[in-house]
Amino acid sequence: MQQYSVLIVDDEEKLRSLLKRIIQLEGFTVFEAGDIKSATKLMERETVDAVLCDVKLPDGNGVDFAKEIKKHYPLVEVILLTAFGNIADGVQAMKNGAFDYIIKGDDNEKIIPLLNRATEKAQLQKRLWQLELQVSKRYTFDNILGESPAIKDAIDLAKRVAPTETNVLLLGETGTGKEVFAQSIHNASSRNGKSFVAINCSAFSKELLESEIFGHKAGSFTGAIKDKKGLIEEANNGTLFLDEIGEMNIDLQAKLLRVLETSEFIKVGDTKPTKVNVRIIAATNRNLSVEVKEGRFRDDLFYRLNVFTISLPGLRERKKDIHILADQFVKVFADKMNKKVSRISDAFLLHLENHDWKGNIRELKNIIERAVILTDGNELTDQQLPVEFQSQSLENNKQLSAFDLASVEKLHIQRVLNHTKGNKTETARLLNIGLTTLYRKIEEYQINTHL
């Protein structure tokens, strides 16, 4: 059971002792202080979840102290106690961030339930803060791996634009890390700590996408039984990431353009505009210049988004980074699956380097995850690669001669095994060779039979 800690701040020693005994019986760890100065020093050295504080103290006012506590310890909840309650103090206490404001004696039975709610809220806030911290650490420019000039140039551009309020357009193939860049830009901006909201524009129909982004009023269409806040409003004061913006319907493009020009929009079914302060980061794998020429993308929106463009290189353009990325993914998945995989064989790496990588980093990540699942040792070998992956890699390997009979034979056997989904009897029949011969050639050529 989680044990929470409470600090009692009151200059009446007898009352402090009484409260301490009552609160300790409920399983709380309790600290005491007779004034603001000693309470402040105690909080510097002890972890406190909630503060139970008198309003009138020898060296200050508890209402003002609540404000100081929330300023320096925003995750700590403060409950104020007073012998003579008044509305003005109560209102100010809440403005200063107090969890509650109660009268001594009359509200004693409320203290334990209040402390339970206050400490639970404090712990929930701590968990959320830890999660946000993990996310912010994960999405930083330092965590974007790579030594190739192309990725370094992209990171440098992103670092330069991040502190500004400029909207950003990210261009790149699927799987090149556009959302990672968007989140890193957000985390390096003055909007860090505010909402980062992402939506894939290709995942919704026009009507649903409009409702998701801009929200709607109750009764605006069938099924709209209550008002809904759109993602652009959820991202107010933060960043909205519009992935695959090239898929957005041209009518919705006009609404987005209005946001960029006037910082306001109209919800579906509403008549009044809603003001919003949001930074837009958009991404696409399409050539928007071509889309504009062919009438599928508004030129005025394109020019608004195209103020600062960052092109993310495909993995085939940064071959020297494959080893770095693969090593990182091995560490991640080995740890996740509790496996002692620590090395990648030269043959495995050679196949990686000769692959086309149409899915880019996302595809590499999937290949490594699959290989870690299949391996029983501490090294990844080409035996853990998919047959079709090896076949394509073999075709692309410039070190192989088109006249090398062994290479051609190995490639052909791999293709037939792929066709039969690993059925060796059927493979031998189609190749018109004996099953024993097939097994011998699989061993001789070290052909991967995992599909």
Note down, in words, how this protein is organized.
This protein has 451 residues and is an alpha/beta fold. The chain folds into three domains: 130 residues, Rossmann fold (3-Layer(aba) Sandwich); 168 residues, P-loop containing nucleotide triphosphate hydrolases (Rossmann fold), CATH 3.40.50.300; 129 residues, Helicase, Ruva Protein, domain 3, CATH 1.10.8. It is built from 19 helices and 18 strands. Strands 2-1-3-6-7 form a five-stranded parallel beta sheet, with helices on both faces. A five-stranded parallel beta sheet has the order 9-12-15-8-16. Strands 4-5 form a two-stranded antiparallel sheet. A hairpin with an 8-residue loop joins strand 13 and strand 14. The protein starts with a strand and ends in a 6-residue tail after the last helix. About 1% of the residues have low confidence.
List keywords for this structure.
five-stranded parallel beta sheet, 3 domains, extended, 451 residues, alpha/beta, Rossmann fold, Helicase, Ruva Protein, domain 3
Could you give a short description of this structure?
This protein has 451 residues and is α/β, with parallel strands linked by helices.
